[in-house]
Write a structure and sequence with these properties.
Two copies of one chain form a homodimer. Chain A is α/β, with parallel strands linked by helices. Helices cover 29% and strands 31% of the residues of chain A.
């Protein structure tokens, strides 16, 4: 997605080690027009997989998942990282190491919103180690629903997240921008 | 907003004590079409206040804030509850008691996205005690920016949140659905 690649190049801040700060448009301040385009790009790519629900994890997965849901006319479910007091007793549960905050985070989804006949499109902001996606895929497995696709806004190709996901899911994995890390610690951003 | 009132009546679950579970359409599973309508309603009501940025707190504030940002063509900033490792060193900071999870939660905003000349429209999903909104208003005060409005999707009129906000903000406070609690523990939902 060329607009996203250009935004990463113009507004992202590279801090070394393959880490690009994108909080000016993706995960702290949100560029709402760009996020609409991200939703359109996922909706177009995954249309043929015929999902019935978009699944993501709070918090930074919510904007791209919601825009994809808006563009496809589908409900969006986000895994909670703490169980609200009002949630029903039985839940689907997995844990994933936090990408940017340290420690493990729980991922909790109510069975009410992941019925066994659902066709699930998993959307997240970053694909790096892939461990959050693998945990979310485990939640889908617990529900008995069918995972039909995995979409990530930004993929770090120098981590093995895509391989981790491919070990548990043989369908389409699609990212809208890819960050490559070179031996001299420079990066390249491509669509 | 009549569509929201009808949705609360048809899909909300009243558990007593004025607590209505809305996680089937508002804060766990999101009805994307309803959320678009919520964004349109806020955009229309607050158009005259001429905001330049929408501010909210993660996670459940993000969907209504993002849809309002999309409808108004404005960036959306959400306060983080944990400081990401990639955030800049100086931050605006406040704390609010958690509505549904127990304990206090920190609210953190990077000064980069709340410049002193901003006109801030604060959007959140629930207005109950008002303490989250008051904490967010304190963050706006720290930034030197101007708060122009406060919009909440659902207001519990039997808690004193509106009064709490009115003590620190003399502009428009608007909710799209109001839940009243009666002496016999029954509720009424109105727009």
């Amino acid at each position: 997605m060329e607009a996203l690649v250009q935004k990463i190049k113009s507004a992202g801040t590279y801090v070394g080690g393959g880490i690009v700060k994108v909080d000016s448009f993706l995960n702290h301040q949100i560029d709402s027009e760009l996020m609409l385009g991200i939703g359109s790009a996922f909706a177009e790519f995954f249309a043929a997989t015929e999902p019935t629900v978009i699944l993501t994890a709070e918090s930074s997965g919510i904007p791209p998942a919601l825009m994809t849901g808006v563009k496809m006319g589908l409900p969006v479910v986000y895994a909670r990282k703490k169980e609200p007091l009002t949630m029903s007793k039985k839940v689907y549960y997995a844990e994933a190491p936090s990408r940017t905050k340290g420690g493990n985070v729980p991922l909790i989804v109510s069975p009410d919103y992941l019925p066994s006949d659902a066709r699930v499109l998993l959307i997240d902001d970053f694909l790096a180690t892939g461990l959050t996606a693998v945990a979310m895929i485990d939640i889908v497995r617990q529900s008995g629903a069918k995972l039909v696709g995995v979409g990530c806004v930004v993929e770090k190709t120098f981590e093995d997240g895509r391989d981790q996901i491919a070990q548990v899911f043989d369908g389409p994995i699609h990212s809208l921008a890819k960050i490559s890390l070179h031996e001299d610690d420079s990066i390249t951003v491509t669509s």
